[in-house]
Amino acid sequence: MSNLNKEEILFYLYFIFILIGKSIGLGANNFILRIITIMAFIFLLIKLTITKYTRREIIIIAILIIIGMFTFYISKRAGVLLSILTIIGMKNIEYKKLFSLSLNIKVIIYFTIIFSSLIGMIPNKQYVHWRDGIGYITRYSLGYNHPNLLHSNLFIIVVLFIYLNYKKLNIINCSIILAVNFFIYNFSLSRTGFYSIIMIVIVSYILSRIKKHINYSIFKYIMPISVIFTFVTAKLYNQYEILYKLDNILTGRIFVSFLKLI
After folding, report:
1. Which residues contact 213 (CB under 8 A, 6 or more apart)?
2. Keyword Membrane: yes or no (predicted)?
C-alpha cells in the first residue's frame, strides 16, 4: 500500500471489511458481522471527512443519503443505503483497482468456505424440498447459509471476472467458468444461478467477438425492459400457458409477482 494515498487506504480498508462480512455469509444479526461492519464504517467516516466535495456534490450526497435512509426505514434492509455510502466514498478511487481487489478477495473467501465445509470445519447445511417434475431434492450450502447464496456468490465472481477480462475472454477461460458452474450446481441445485451464469458467459463471449458491430447504448434500456417484462408477465400470468412454463424455469418468480398484484 506504499503507493496509495490516505483516501485510498481508508476506502480500501472499508471495502475489504465490508466485502469479507458479505462474502462469508453471516446473518444480519450475527455479532461478528456487526463488529466487522462497525470497523468498516469507521474507516469510511474518516475517509469522507478528509475528502473534499463541491457544494453541488454535497447537495447530491444529502439527497442520496435521505433516499437510502428512507429505503432502509421502509424495507428494514441496509443494502441500498450501503450501496449509496459506498458510491459516495468512491470519489478519487480508481474503480478498476477496486473491482480487481474485490475479485481476488471474493475468490479466496469463496473457495476457502467451500473447502472448509467439505472437510467438516464448518457446517454444510442440507435443504430438502419438493421440486415439480423431479420430486424431493437435497441441496447443499457448502458453508453458506443457503444454497442460493452459494451460487449467487459465484455469479458475482463470474461477473467481476468477465468485466475485468472482457477483452481476454476465450474458449478456455469460458469453459473453466462453465465447468465450475456445473460443479457448484451439483450441490446448490440453484437453477436461477446456474442458468444466469451460462447466459452471461455465452452472451459476453459472443459480444466480445462482434463488438465492432454493436451499439452499446442499447444496454441502458435493459433495466426498464426488465421491469416492464416483470410487470407484464405477472399481470398476464393466469392467461397464457407459456407463462406457467416460463415461471417453472424461473423457479416461481412470476407467480410471486402475480400474487403481489392480486
Report:
1. none
2. yes
Q: Are 205 and 167 in contact (CB under 8 A)?
A: no
Please count the CA atoms within 13 angstroms of the CA of 181 that sit on its side-chain side.
Answer: 24
List Cα–Cα distances, 59 to 96, 159, 187, 247, in angstroms: 27, 32, 48, 43
Is 50 part of any domain? yes
Tell me which residue range forms the domain holding 244. Answer: 218-261
The Cβ of residue 33 has, within 10 Å, a number of other Cβ atoms equal to 17
What is the sign, positive or negative, of the torsion defined by CA atoms of 109, 111, 114, 117? negative
Q: What is the pLDDT of residues 135-179, one digit of tens each?
A: 889 999 998 888 999 999 999 999 999 999 998 999 999 999 999
Query: d(Cα 36, Cα 136) in Å, to the nearest integer?
Result: 38
1 secondary structure, DSSP code: -
Task: Looking at the structure, tell me whether residues 77 and 154 fall in a common domain.
Answer: no
What element of type H or E holds 104? helix 95-118
Domain co-membership, 82 together with 165: no
Distance CA(147)–CA(154), nearest Å, equals 11
CA atoms within 13 A on the CB side of 255: 11
Is residue 99 in some structural domain? no
CB-side exposure of 185: number of CA atoms within 13 Å? 16
User: pLDDT tens digits, residue range 188-243?
Assistant: 999 889 999 999 999 999 888 876 666 566 667 777 888 888 888 888 888 888 88
Measured between alpha carbons, how far is 174 from 161 in angstroms, rounded to an integer? 10
Which among 118, 203, 187 is positioned nearest to 153, based on CA atoms?
187
